[in-house]
Mannosyltransferase (Gossypium anomalum), 529 residues
Amino acid sequence: MRKRKNGSSIKHPNLSDAEAKPQKKSPYSSKDVFLTCLGFRMLNALLIQTYFNPDEHWQALEVAHRIAFGYGHLTWEWEEGIRSYLHPMMFALFYKLLALLRLDIPCVMIKAPRLLQSIFSAVGDLYLYKLSFVLFGDGVAKWALFSQLANWFMFFCFNRTFSNSLETTLTLVGLYYWPSVRSSLNKAPSGSRKWGLALAALACAIRPTSAVTWVYVGLLELYLTHDRLRFIFVELIPIGSVVLGITCLLDRLMYDSWVLVPLNFLKFNFLSSGGDYYGTHKWHWYFTQGFTVMVFTFLPFCVAGIIKSKYWKLSGLILWVLGLYSILGHKEFRFVLPVLPISLIFAGYSLAALEERGSRNGEKKRSSCICNKWPSRKQLAIFFLLASNIPMALYMSLIHQRGTEDAMNYLSKEAAKGKVKSIVFLMPCHATPYFSTLHNNLPMRFLDCAPSKGMPTESDRFMMDPVSFAVDFAKNWSHPSHIVLFDSEERHLKDFLVSHSFREVRRFFHAHFKVDRDLQASVVVYADT
């Protein structure tokens, strides 16, 4: 509910008087909401069995495994100092706990990290509900949570061990505590801005690009607050300095030298466009493809919710983030994950408006004794959203690109039995998990793809001519016990594999359609005979 200049009240469009008024207490306790979300997210974590992006393993779990167990591969980003150890350290401590309890066995090491992430995801779900409640009331909050849990991309991505996933949780929690995000009728508790600042600083320490979100929120706070000097000098600078100092000390300990990660990250990704090495998209990609695919069939409900609610603070944040990320050449779905739940809050607003409209129509029909056997608009909307998102979520989480994970899970179990001595991956770099899944300190070799100033990398040369590369590569290798490759390269290398005494031992389904290369329908494991 908003107020006119003369003090009279204006309801949020299409919401009842009860929903438009600021509510002091939710009908559902935070504990109940959290436990419900936790149960859902833990099941969600167990159902994710596919490979999405290398960073899930190579920039989080692989680094954590090296910290906890003394072996694991560090990619070139860690040599350049553009990654902070803050996020991997969380998983490293978890790995240490598993080892202490003697639970560091293959099946646990494979599932446990995503189960840990499910706890953070459930916290994000809870604060999405709480944020929606303080902004729009329970009628919107419950439908915002429904949208969050039903959206296919949140199901597919939120429980993965990306830094973006934790950034999304911190964003939702942080927004709840920022006074500038709330309406004048639902003022934040005293001191909550300090919590909001601390969470914003932590999000930026974990992922420096999170500053895109918090610059918008900070400028909004600066414009609306009456104590600007206190905000800047008593809260912003001291809290930001403490978080930055702790992060720098941790990185100093792990890098064994002073490294200012945010500065290095800024230089590489913004000033030198280093991220463009991994591919670029048109400036409009987030608007026409990336973010629209993430929102999926919730899109019309999000747009309707934005228009009906007229809550421009949050809709402006979505546009701000998408707009600034569009300037960068290199774009990925997960980069804008933190604003997806905010869009789903507006979808919840739209669904709540449908429910309110349906309840009013129902009362009119009951009063006139008219019985309607047709489903209501709300029921049709729910059916449409579930029927379109559930198959997509399950297909992407259980089927599409699962072969590389299945192959490493198999090799992990075989290695635990002593049947694997060494592995070579003749496939594009970082196509599979690595030591964090194998959990066995065996010699392994993948094809390097670190930026090389115009020169083709090992991975590039292999993809251009698999046979010539493999022949040259074999001249200097220590004969491995196993080779892993995609079927698209296997057909070129069959004679090479036979001539070097390898035979196929397992074949794992990978994908029905190609993504950015030729169709990689299956992953094949060969063993030395």
User: Anything to note?
Assistant: The two ends are 73 Å apart (CA to CA). The first helix runs from residue 17 to 20. Strands lie at 2-3, 9-10, 423-425, 444-446, 482-486, 502-509, 522-528.
